[in-house]
Hints:
Radius of gyration of chain A: 26 Å
Number of helices of chain B: 10
Largest interface: A-B, 35 and 42 residues
Mean pLDDT of chain A: 87
Strand content of chain A: under 5%
Strand order of the largest sheet of chain A: 1-2
Distance between the termini of chain A: 70 Å
Order of helices and strands of chain A: HHHHHEEHHHHHHHHHHHHEEHHHHHHHHH
CATH architecture of the domain at 3-77 and 177-189 and 204-252 in chain B: 3-Layer(aba) Sandwich
Number of domains of chain A: 2
Distance between the termini of chain B: 36 Å
Shape of chain B: globular
Mean pLDDT of chain B: 85
Oligomer: heterodimer
Strand content of chain B: 15-25%
Low-confidence stretches of chain A: 638-649
Amino acid sequence: MFELIGISPVLLFGQLLIGLINGVFYSMMSLGVAIIFGMLRIGNFVHGAQYMLGAFGAWYLLHLPDIFPGLGLPSLGYWWALVLVPFGVGLIGALMERLFIRKVYDLEHAYGLLLTVGLAMMIEGIFNVGYGAAGQQYSVPESLRGGINLGFMFMPLYRVWVIVFALLVCFATWYVIERTKLGSYLRAATENPDMVRAFGINVPRMLMLTYAFGVGLAGLAGVMAAPIYQVSPQMGQSIIITIFAVVVIGGMGSIFGAIVTGLMLGLIEGLTKVFYPEGSTTVIFIIMAIVLVFRPAGLFGKETSAHHPSDIAAARPGSFLENGRLWLIVMAVGGSILPFLVYPVFAMKMLCLALFASAYNLVFGYVGLLAFGHAAFYGSSAYVAAHTASIWGFPTEVAILSGVAAATALGALFGWLAIRRQGLYFAMITLALAQIVYFYAIQAPWTHGEDGIQSVPRGYLFGVIDLNEPLNMYFFVLAIFLCGFALIYRIVRSPFGQVLKSIRENEPRSISLGYSTDRFKLIAFTLSAGLAGLAGGTKAIVFQIASLADLYFMTSADALLMTLIGGVGTLLGPIVGAIVVVTMQKELATLGSWVIVVQGSAFVLCVLFLRKGIVGTLEDFLSRREERKRIAADGGKASAPALDSEAAS
Amino acid sequence: MNTAQSEDNIIVANALTKRFHGFAAVSDVDLSVRRHSIHALIGPNGAGKTTMFNLITKFLSPTEGRILFNGRDITTEPPARVARRGIVRSFQISAIYPRMSVADNVRMALQRPIGSSFHFWKSVKSLSVLDDRIDELLDAVGLLASRDQAAAGLPYGRKRALEFATTLALEPELMLLDEPTSGLGHEDVDRIADLIKQVSADRTILMVEHNLSVVAKLADAITVLARGKVLAEGSYSEISENPEVVEAYIGGSDD
């Protein structure tokens, strides 16, 4: 046989086939995500979990007799699964839409994403409890075993079937949406629901069915994937971030674009495995970055209209809860007492995460940008601080500062790429970019893969103060935290902060006043990354370890959760949130894998019932009380409508 | 066009076209605005007036055509830079910062030219040097008494006045007002109209306006748009006698 530049054709075509298989799954999945995003404006993060449900559905059907012994149920094989499971998963999707997703249609896009992140954590967490990390085997159906010998390679029949069938499904979906009356109603319903309602169409039901359909596609992909990949609770988690990147690359507004992009990226990924295996995990994310530079709207996307940042801040200007000077003193005093009440290590964890969440709040709360990749800054700083402290022998404070410098540089780069897009896209892009760092850390020699960098020396502060002494370490961390807090407070209350606030409240107006708003967003993003790095670097010294968990997207989700629970855009919210989350994690540690389920439920509950967070809700209470007092003082005269109702309209 | 004429014009738009997915919202429009005049853009709904505004302020990029501001080609410039050159617009829906105080709204405009907007290490107190100017501007629009109130709490007409004060704060060379009197009561209409007249002394104003009595009172020149094209141009008396304009306006408007 011939050889191509030293690559054996068996390897080449083998990888191309794997790439094609991955590609059709990317197509099917991104098609579902694109439909749900296009029609419902929901960034369906739970899509990966729904795909996993499909695979488990097939596995359950096969093992019905084992699961329900004594009922005399038959074992239903692949073909049954192929028909039943998509409906089953679609039905679960319809139920999720009815119970949760419907509630956030009219809210800022951020909430839809947060809600689906929470749902994904719950579903995957529950399966994780049941099955752990181990995968279940699902064998190829009898009728599709064997293969075709093409001379240069062996082509398994099942794979041929998957490619052909998946492409058929994709094409049929495209046809229905772009070429039929039903599809035109669907498209019209997203443009103008009232109009379609006037035609006598039940719009809520239509949206529910659309969601169920998109989810059903994920379920179908899951069934088809079961014999190829292992059926495991984690199978959806890794694919969803890739799918988001595919959607960003393809661009919204084109069903056809989603299909083609998925296939193409699968093939490119396969080729990368042949020619540069180290890059295969990140190639899609890197392509995404390149596409963003040259074609921000995506390969098939149309020019997007300006979408201004979400304003979901819950702070009340002038409230004593926003008085940073007062709280700086309170926290300095409280922080000094804390290590005598709880374990210093526990208190230090709280401080690091509170600083991390406050840094995150700077972009999410004060600029209104839904960033979803802050783990990249937190984690990279942790690694750099750990490496410079343990290998290069940097003094502790210099090691932390090196981490901050790395995080700041990374923040400037990621910010520069991500601010080209807004809203949900911004979230998807930051998430995907952070994934590059994560995969880098898995492979690079100096990060030591799964082990991370361990036994980082705490060292001596300024060469004299022994940080191995717990209280010394603690007060150093407290000082860092207070400095970070003071800096954030200053940023927010500076001329620069005023511009950020104006961007959040009305970006077009700020542009019309002559502010290049993107530059302000970029600086805020970079500052936020640097501060997240300060938290991450400090954490590496305190716990003497930098690990993959610091870079994992769950760490980004933690920052979001803490900010949300405490109160987005409030000064104290992220700190309160950090206290709640860290305490919760500690109290629930005995529950093992259930922690993730509880955390997912916390997301869902916050989005549904506590959108203003603890501090925001307290602000509402205080402002109502003030209002009542004022009315009483005015002799019961009704006053102007409250600020909130006006601002929300 | 001869040179003398173009020097006299602050804005010259040549053959401006904007298509959205094939639909031409504005097609082949020429527009020249004379320096230190009040120029009104009128026409029935959907005539392309707001699109013209968005094109001139670069909130939209023209599909074809060229825009010159003081003889300089600004066709490819980003909107914030155009604003810094001195073209400042208002919006159809009151563009205010609802949760900021009335004074801080105006401060946002005054803050940019003093150059500390990127200073994240300074206190906001450094901006209190602007207080006197803020009070002057608020006084001019009758909002001084509400200066510390949140802008969201103002009645509609007062919000428009605040937006006007903020736009004025930048001392723009060219001020674009998108329906400055829409939705206002009689008293507020008169007040805004007087203000426009007052501030037009040393600047140019291009306005979209539905209220024809305001147009009659203020405008030196009028361009009538219909279906994305220029239907007529001239003074109010010329325009009001143009049968095509009367037809388009009375036939097509819902006012």
